[in-house]
């Protein structure tokens, strides 16, 4: 007989969803308006809409399919990703529009604000990748709401205290999401993780679907890195697109080589490959403002792929044994380490271009402060979220029901007929 529905799905999920959605509708009814007369960084609607579509595909299709590699968690991997993404985006629009709400009485909604909201959502989806299969949908929604709140707060602090450019503060989403998720895995650790969960495995069919998500992410990542750049500066957006593509291409080739070299059997690992070929896009996105030549982007992509591939092979198991952090999707290897590498590359490239030592020192201090604030805030908000979710009120799934769709979805062909 199929397992009964998780109690939280009936008594907690539906009331939570209805409460949130009705609340959002009320807020949007009284405090938002469509900003149809404003151009996004000097671009028209027709030219910006294609970039918005690309980011939307990444968030919904890319992150959705990439979590379907688990053999019995495909419904939840893709379905809950869509549910969390649309709720988190609505919430991010409200939080990002708080300043406009305060000064104008209305939250201005346009394509740019939608893109920024979806990028905040991407940070939450990165964090959720560490907990895929070990939580119920109520957990995922709470994680997304609190993580987006922390990330928007981090943006505000960087732009207010350090006068960071909005693009640079937003692209730290990889670092913020990875360390936030790391704290969740540490606080919500399960003893069963040490022996590996029974259903935490993949087969050919689920691996193929998951690779489809990686392909979507890989194809549209140049738009993700360049969408918020000012199009009025000649060549800046084109440079970002070219740099991202070259870094992704190099990281794909390098990841394939290092994957074989690091394998005891000399074969490719599908899950390792699909995670590590994206490392170049992550690293270049964080370091974009310091890249001026194609070879710089290619070098960063090469280094990111090496770090990510080796990290996937050895970091995940060592984090589990040493720190009791069990990651499902190896987020630290895919986003955390490449993100930190991109931050370091930007520091080196910007200092190289400085005219004098005083400017270089000031930039270095400023740059170090940005990552320290980001990591500190991500760790602290991750700890708070983890402690909140540790409360049994949320009814976490039992170990034997982890990584199993049957706890949350109907399977008519498995129903017992009387």
Provide a compact summary of the structure:
The chain has 418 residues and is mainly α. 70% of the residues lie in helices and 1% in strands. Helix 1 runs parallel beside helix 3, helix 2 runs antiparallel to helix 9 and helix 12 packs parallel to helix 14.
List the helices and strands and how they pair.
Blueprint: H1 7-31, E1 32-34, H2 45-66, H3 74-96, H4 98-104, E2 107-109, H5 111-128, H6 137-161, H7 166-170, H8 173-187, H9 204-226, H10 236-262, H11 270-276, H12 279-286, H13 294-323, H14 331-353, H15 357-389
Parallel strand pairs: 1-2
Helix pairs in contact: 1-3, 2-3, 2-5, 2-9, 3-5, 3-6, 5-6, 5-8, 6-15, 8-14, 8-15, 9-10, 9-11, 10-12, 10-13, 11-13, 12-13, 12-14, 13-14, 14-15
Structural commentary:
Pfam families: Ammonium_transp. Residues 19-390 form the Ammonium transporter AmtB-like domain. The protein is mostly helical. The protein has one domain (29-36, 47-394): Orthogonal Bundle (Ammonium transporter fold). It contains 15 helices and two strands. The protein has helices at residues 7-31, 45-66, 74-96, 98-104, 111-128, 137-161, 166-170, 173-187, 204-226, 236-262, 270-276, 279-286, 294-323, 331-353, 357-389, and strands at residues 32-34, 107-109. A two-stranded parallel ribbon has the order 1-2. Helix 2 (45-66) runs antiparallel to helix 9, helix 8 packs parallel to helix 15 (357-389) and helix 9 (204-226) packs antiparallel against helix 10 (236-262).
Number of domains: 1
**Radius of gyration (Å):** 21 Å
How much of the sequence lies in strands comes to: under 5%
**SSE arrangement, N to C:** HEHHHEHHHHHHHHHHH
What do we call the CATH topology? Ammonium transporter fold
Number of helices: 15
As a percent range, the share of helical residues equals: 55-70%
- Under the CATH scheme, which class? Mainly Alpha
Q: What's the CATH H-level homologous superfamily?
A: Ammonium transporter AmtB like domains
Largest β-sheet summary: 2 strands, parallel
CATH architecture: Orthogonal Bundle
Mean pLDDT, all residues: 87
GO biological process, one term: ammonium homeostasis
Protein name: Rh blood group, D antigen
Keywords: Membrane, Transmembrane, Transmembrane helix
Domain Ammonium transporter AmtB-like: 19-390
